[in-house]
Amino acid sequence: MVSVAICTRNRADLLAKAAQSVLPQLADQDELLIVDNGSTDGTPAYCAHLSANLGCVRAFTESKSGLSVARNRALQEARGEWIIFLDDDTVVESGWLAAYRTFFANGVTDKIAALGGSVIPRYESSVPQWLPPHPVAPNNSVEARPCQPGESVIGCNFAVRRKLTLEIGGFNVRLGHCGEVPGGYDEVELIERFTRAGYEIWWVTGACVQHLVSSTRLNLLWQLNCAFHVGSCSAIRRLSKLNAGSSTFSFSLMRILTGPFHCAFHLLAATFSFLIRNRRKGTRSLMRASSIAGYNFLLVKQLFRPDYA
Q: Would you say the pTM of this structure is higher than 0.85?
């Protein structure tokens, strides 16, 4: 039995497209879980309609905001040994679930904790020349393979062992998107815990999804805001690896003192890049500066609220 989970918030139209792409690929014993994370649009009505008319669909409402919170709810409610997470702005391609199922049947050992599939960006409008490339899962091999050092699955198309994920604590609820606030590193931090525990992470060939990149994200202010909050998540991720006490304080103090200089360096690099009309490099430097600012903002906040991170 395979559980497919879609966590959603205020995207009824996109959710319908995602669900309709998955439903034809489900076998009789499979299930589609939808976790509504506090939607105020037509999402609750659509979820109620699907669950009332299709026995393979189960819908839940998670009132506490946060993608990681919603994913943990899906882990608790799922019935399958494996749970595949999709974003509500994805559409799965033909053979997507069959590719996962084939790997589950033939390639899985007890040492494999998570799997990732390919992601193809689908832009809602023309892509600005300054925009850095959209992350695409590096799964171009003919055969499935283990993730290489430094690689991690992409959150809109990956699977985990449900019981094992619950045993190691599930997703860190301080990471990832929260309501309308962007975030990140939720699946990355989970994969790091799997790896430290001695488990393997693999890429699955043929499990491909198309990921919508909305026009609102093709905006410099949105990109900078996202970089700021992802930087904050990066700091939380880093602090979680340190021992509590003096080591955390020393690390935070050092980064807080050096952060402004790092931020200024990237702002100068951005200015120079824009002057020579290298807009993409300039944008990357601006985003890096914003990420450093978010990182240091979290560290300062954590000094006054040690329980925050």
A: yes
